[in-house]
Amino acid sequence: MSTPNEPYPETKLWNVPNVLTMARIVLAIVMFAILPFKFYATSLILFVVAALTDFVDGWWARKFNQKTQFGRIMDPFADKALVCGTFIYFAAIPELHDLFDCAASTCSCPLSKIPIGVATWMVVAIVMREMFVTMLRSMVESSGGDFSAKWVGKWKTTLQCFDLPLGFVILIMGESAPCWLKVLFVALLYVVVYLTLYSGWIYVKAAMNMNRKKD
């Protein structure tokens, strides 16, 4: 039981959700540090663990009423750092630029002649959207508005956390990666880009509606 001088559990800074959020940032930093050395298997494990903390900390905060202003700010920052940072690194890895450029003589993939993969414009679009939505959230919530995540934004995050591990698996397998896995990765990548831009527009409309109501 809390004493009169002791803060309520939901107002404590270092509660379980906030610790998980900070752990996600640390895991992301470690992953980014080892990616240039091509430790893709370890990076995959770190990414999956970090992504799982995102789902756990949100569930824990709602279940045990441990929502804090710190967590409301740091949780989306940790998500964006993990996802955007991984996309940026993927854009810098040549093997992911042209996924179907297979040198193996036994390669029978019908897309082997099409240069397709992680394109720079995709990563720029994703990062710009995240930066813009973060700015909107700061403006809206600083004026007392509610800028909670929309369903399309949650689907976007879920697909990102499912698609990016596929990229790690492809890097781990190299030229032995099956064609269907590459097709799935690219298909989900385009869906992620679409949902990223679409959800950004949804947030823009929500902010505009809030502004009209105040006027």
Structural class: mainly alpha
Number of helices: 6
Radius of gyration: 20 Å
Tell how many strands the DSSP assignment holds.
0
Average residue pLDDT? 84
Give the topology, please.
Elements: H1 16-34, H2 40-63, H3 69-91, H4 120-142, H5 151-173, H6 179-214
Helix pairs in contact: 1-2, 1-3, 2-5, 3-4, 3-5, 4-6, 5-6
Walkthrough of the structure:
The chain has 2 domains: 1-92, no CATH class; 99-215, no CATH class. The protein starts with 15 loop residues before the first helix and ends with a helix. The protein is built from 6 helices and no strands. α1 (16-34) packs antiparallel against α2 (40-63), α1 (16-34) packs parallel to α3 and α4 (120-142) runs parallel beside α6. Helix content is 69%, strand content 0%. By secondary structure, the chain is mainly α.
Quick gist of this model?
The chain has 215 residues and is mainly α. It is 69% helix and 0% strand. It folds into two domains: 1-92, no CATH class; 99-215, no CATH class.
Key words describing this protein structure:
215 residues, mainly alpha, disordered N terminus
